[in-house]
Design brief:
The complex is a heterodimer of chains A (616) and B (250). Chain A is of the alpha+beta class and 616 residues long. Helices cover 49% and strands 16% of the residues of chain A. In chain B, helix 3 packs parallel to helix 5 and helix 4 crosses helix 5. The chains are: A alpha+beta (616), B alpha/beta (250). At the A-B interface, helix 19 and helix 20 of A face helix 2, helix 3 and helix 4 of B.
């Protein structure tokens, strides 16, 4: 009889909290495991680091090939996973040692020839992805990272350097370490205010100068590759003016035979613009320019600011020689005719390039690389819808003219004939290409942190973030507490219905109308403790909502106690008539006659037993 | 031993007991009877302090029960035994445990329980559960439970009403024997039993005591129509018995 009914109640509540806490762990981790396995099937996971898409029909052959390729490799395993449309996912897993030795780098090479191979994606989980670091730093970084105990392995991936953790808990620690490891690398960035190649080049030169003797990498050089080549090619066919005096970059020059007064608006047929790498004609055609026109410097509003001295004009188009046909090319003529038709009909320039290559092959000629570059630009230009109006017709016309002339080297002739567009068109073309293709910033990565040039912004080079697969895992983990808490709320209600409605019913029997309040307090207390100690992350507001819902449900259940756990009033009356105290009445009469539950289980040791009587 | 003074009880604005005055002397057997719903069982519960009256006093052994603390009232109840009409045994306890329950918060002397069980002839069935017993046996457990407390007074709330006729006699026999030793307040419709055992017969109607006298006087000269009704019934029984050919029965 030691301890009253309140102690019994307290023990029941504590035990329920322990069970609810256990439930939240079991439900949370169970749910997490279940979902994780489903995710692994689709996008790989910690056990299987690579997912290969294979043509479903070739599954058997692919698997056989796979076994052959990896025979004798300890730790290699694979699992045939989900079917997605016509493909099937096959998961590949490597040993830790294999991964450290670059298994992921060689996987494509080893299996891409197998039948049905449809590409792979190394999706690692849980992993930190380091973006922004130059690839030639990877070996040094990987060597250091592999000494960290939290890391399973590090490897080059499609988006950057993947650092795979042994478990999710280590991710933050790895991120911290990576930040420290990459902290000596800085990205310097400068915003380009004018869309010219020359300006970018100048800045790069300045940075080059600043970085002399230090290790650095360019990550986003402007106007490089085929676009840069194209711009340079086009510029080389644009008329250039040279003045004795230096003119401000960006200003415009009017060229006209008429005399213009300073301060008046310039209405001229020809215009040029001052760029850092030269002064180019941007309006009119150099073929119509005599060179004797007067030059006027204009201000930003197009008003004549200054009369300029004499200049020299360099027009590549004027200087082109006329080609004479030196070989019979009747077939070529027909082909060119067909090609011209296709150009007018809207044929893709990609196909055009292939046809030109075919033509060249037929004539045992090699397509010059600069022509290929030029046409590649046209492909890009065409696809972004920036081809000048009438370009196709003009190109077709030129092709036909070229065919008429029957040049012995038609491809070179073509190269030379393309710039026969007006200088204005050419200038417009490279300006537009640059506007589309060139980034607005130029940046370098260096080991020095303080930029030596004003206006250059300095920031850490490495962008360290959780890998997308890992993030998906994170999302799953964020769902886990919801699922687990829902299970806990339901379990709380079961406990309430089984154990506490009996108490509520007894309170009702004693005409104590505070039973719903008791239910609410019980629900809130148990949920609050579970929510407080649960090891899952969740927003405070959501936790509060769960606590409130738990409390509300318990209050409702307790309100209907008499229906859920009706008492045997006659048994209670018998107990009362025997002079039992409230505690013993509850222990000996009410609880044993209620539903089996925790309280009943705990009550067993308090139950009357003949052995506990004297003279037994 | 037991005195009820002006007991008034109202439930849902309906008067269940109206100015009931009753006195049970030490060693006396009082039979309380009346039509169903007249308040007999309620009166017993008031005597036990299970129901608190609106007004009036219940004195037991010189103590006003209304003035006692809940704890003191519970202790006082252990001096009173009650046998219920529907036995009110606890199904999760054996016969022995049901009887021991009466002593659980008392002296926990198992011997008392065992003697009580023996006295009602259920020793062999002490480890059985109520569901394994007949109605008569269940009621005998109820009696043993009341006796285990060695009460100063035993209340009987129609102890034979829920029994098959074949078990009634054995219960009445036990009651008869106990009447020699204990103060008893018996609610029953068994008029032959009343006539034989009761020192006093109290007749109730609609929450009031309408007549109170030794049974022989009530059956001879009833002063109330309830008394007259019971007299009629008793005479009918006698007439029926008179028609019985005893030789044939024997």
């Amino acid at each position: 009889m030691r301890g009253g009914i309140k102690l019994d109640l307290a023990i029941v509540i504590v035990l329920e909290i322990v069970l609810l806490s256990a439930a939240i762990l079991v439900a949370g981790h169970g749910f997490s495991f279940y979902v994780q396995r489903g995710l692994d099937d689709i996008i790989g996971g910690t056990e299987y680091q690579v997912i290969v898409q294979v043509d479903k029909k070739e599954t058997k052959n692919f698997v056989e090939g796979l076994k052959e390729v990896y025979s004798g490799r300890d730790g290699f395993k694979f699992r045939v996973s989900k079917e997605l449309g016509e493909n099937i996912h096959i998961l590949l897993g490597y040993s830790e040692e294999d991964l450290k030795n670059g298994a992921l780098d060689e996987v494509a090479k080893l299996i891409s020839h197998l039948p049905g191979y449809g590409g792979l994606a190394p999706l690692l989980d849980p992993a930190v992805l380091v973006k922004g670091m130059p690839q030639d730093t990877y070996p040094e970084l990987v060597e250091e990272i592999h000494t960290w105990p939290e890391v399973k392995f590090a490897a080059k991936g499609p988006l950057g350097l993947y650092v795979v953790a042994k478990n999710r808990r280590n991710l933050n620690k790895i991120e911290d370490k990576l930040e420290e490891l990459t902290s000596k690398y800085y990205r310097w960035e400068i915003e380009l205010k004018d869309y010219t190649n020359q300006q970018a080049a100048e800045i790069r030169e300045m940075i080059d100068e600043a970085l002399k003797g230090t290790k650095y990498w360019f990550t986003t050089p402007p106007a490089e590759g085929v676009i840069g080549d194209a711009v340079r090619l086009l510029k080389s066919y644009t008329a250039q003016l040279t003045f004795a005096k230096e003119l401000p970059v960006g200003s415009e020059i009017a060229l006209t035979a008429r005399n213009l007064k300073v301060g008046t608006k310039a209405d001229a047929d020809f215009k040029a613009r001052v760029y850092t790498d030269g002064i180019y004609l941007i309006k009119g055609d150099s073929l119509n320019l005599t060179g004797s026109e007067k030059a006027y410097l204009l201000d930003g509003s197009g008003t004549v600011k200054e009369v300029l001295p004499e200049y020299t004009l360099e027009s590549p188009r004027r200087d082109l020689d006329v080609w004479e046909p030196k070989a019979d090319a009747r077939n070529l003529k027909a082909s060119i005719q067909s090609l011209a038709d296709k150009v007018v009909q809207g044929e893709d320039f990609g196909i055009l390039i292939r046809e030109i290559e075919q033509l060249a092959k037929n004539l045992s000629l090699e397509v010059p690389s600069d022509l290929k570059s030029q046409l590649s630009v046209l492909v890009l230009w065409d696809r972004v819808g920036r081809l000048p109006g009438g370009f196709r017709e003009e190109l077709a016309q030129k092709l036909l003219q070229w065919a008429e002339a029957m040049p012995s080297d038609p491809l070179i002739k073509l190269k030379e004939s393309l710039p026969s567009w007006s200088d204005e068109d050419i200038a417009k073309s490279w300006q537009e290409i640059e506007a589309i293709a060139r980034p607005k910033t130029i940046s370098v990565i260096t080991t020095g942190s303080a930029p030596p040039i004003d206006g250059v912004i300095s920031k850490p080079a490495a962008e360290i973030s959780e890998d997308i697969k890992s993030q998906i895992g994170g999302v799953v983990n964020s769902v886990v507490p919801f699922a687990a808490l829902t299970v806990v709320v339901i379990l709380l209600w079961v406990f309430t219905a089984v154990d506490h409605t009996l108490w509520g019913s007894y309170l009702d029997h004693k005409n104590n109308y505070l039973a719903p309040l008791y239910g609410w307090l019980l629900g809130v207390l148990e949920m609050a403790v579970v929510v407080y100690i649960m090891p899952f992350e969740m927003s405070g507001m959501v936790k509060l909502i769960y606590v409130a819902v738990g409390g509300l449900g318990s209050a409702v259940l307790i309100t209907f106690s008499s229906r859920i756990s009706p008492l045997n009033a006659k048994s209670i009356e018998a107990g009362e008539a025997l002079g039992l105290s409230q505690t013993e009445l509850y222990r000996q009469v009410v609880v044993p006659e209620g539903r089996p539950g925790l309280w009943q289980l705990l009550n067993r040791r308090k139950l009357l037993s003949p052995r506990r009587f004297k003279n037994a | 031993m037991l005195e009820l003074h002006d007991i008034v009880l109202e439930r849902n604005n309906v008067r269940s007991l109206a100015n009931v005055n009753l006195k049970v002397e030490d060693g006396e057997t009082v039979v309380l009877t009346g039509p169903s719903g007249c308040g007999k069982s309620t009166l017993i519960r008031v005597c036990l302090g299970l129901i608190k009256p609106k007004s009036g006093e219940v004195w037991f052994e010189g103590v006003n029960l209304q003035a006692l603390s809940p704890e003191a009232l519970r202790k006082k109840r252990r001096k009173m035994g009650i046998v219920f009409q529907e036995f009110q045994l606890l199904d999760h306890f054996t016969v022995l445990e049901n009887v021991l329950l009466a002593l659980w918060e008392g002296d926990r002397d198992r011997k008392k329980a065992e003697e009580a069980i023996k006295s009602v002839g259920l020793w062999d069935k002490r480890f059985r559960y109520p569901r394994q017993l007949s109605g008569g046996e269940k009621q005998r457990v109820g009696i043993a439970r009341a006796l285990a407390l060695d009460p100063d007074i035993i209340f009987w709330d129609e102890p034979t009403a829920a029994l098959d006729p074949m078990y009634v006699h054995e219960i009445l026999r036990i009651m008869d024997s106990l009447a020699q030793k204990k103060t008893m307040l018996v609610v029953t419709h068994e008029m032959p039993f009343a006539l034989k055992v009761a020192d006093r017969l109290v007749l109730m109607e609609a929450g009031r005591i309408v007549e109170e006298a030794p049974p022989s006087r009530i059956f001879a000269e009833p002063a109330s129509h309830v008394g007259a009704m019971y007299r009629e019934r008793l005479l009918d029984t006698r007439e029926a018995l008179g028609k019985l050919d005893v030789k044939q029965v024997v």
